[in-house]
Amino acid sequence: TEAGGERRTLELKLHVALQDSQIAVKFAHMACTRLLSECTQWWVEPLIASVSFTAWMNLFALFEKESSSAFVQRLLAVVQADMPVLCSYWAGVYAWIALVDPPAGVESGCPESPSDSLLLFAETAGGLVAYDFLFFWLHLAMHCWPWFGRLLDHARHHDRDDTGASVQAQGSAFRTVRHSFVDGALQVFVNICVQRHTVWGSPKSRLARWLHNILVTMLLSEAHSTGSLRIARRLPVALVRGVHEHHLHHRHRGLPFQQFFSYLDDATLRFVRLRAKAE
Fold first, then answer.
1. pLDDT at 226 (0 to 100)
2. Are the C-beta atoms of residues 123 and 205 closer than 8 Å to each other?
3. Which of 103, 144, 229, 253 fits a 20 to 30 Å CA distance from 59?
4. Distance (Å, whole) CA 262 – CA 279
5. Residue 198 has pLDDT above 60, yes or no
6. Packing angle, helices 206-223 and 181-196, rounded to 10
7. How are the residues of the chain apportioned to helix, strand and coil, as percentages rounded to the nearest 5?
């Protein structure tokens, strides 16, 4: 009948669409696998990090409240001031590669099944948590031990803070990379450490490392921007409070010290309150 014919036509179209999608997925997987297997040179990961940082900072800065001429002037000032930092970053990475052997058994990480996708997610998420956990203690020490902060010249990162200014006036994605050489080197060192292995000890896959660099640079840029563009800040505050509230740290230089999450800040606050009660 006519209804039966329409049903068979619909089933045929769905079957063709399913076949096309399977072919597309296979093609994408082959392309991803080949890209990851070919791009194994030492400079690929730092290049991804450098390009990602530049792209994210400029993207978030475009949504900050200022004229286009002011944006261009600030961009040129950042390029001039931070070019030595970028050169030092690449020199440091090259020295690390020359002195330290990469972990053995690094796989491409391109998922072939749902379980592989879950593993890739766990690798990437675990790296973000590990980076945030390790740098929290360094950041806390920079503020709690003045001598340590002076040694690293962490004040350079805060030299444009103005407690009397509005939040928009204080926030700038470009200040993400405004820090001393030693301060920045510590952040890079922490990132290298969490990129070598997963939190459960196996070598981290190449794709997870690429995604980590893209996401870390995005989170850091967004945490320092108070513009209207919201990516991670669309997530609940309880999940990424460090990104939501990092501007508060630049206003009073206290909590939050975590850049992405908040569980260590919460634990620190509880410890301080319990200690105050005991005294």
1. 83
2. yes
3. 253
4. 26
5. yes
6. 140
7. 75, 0, 25
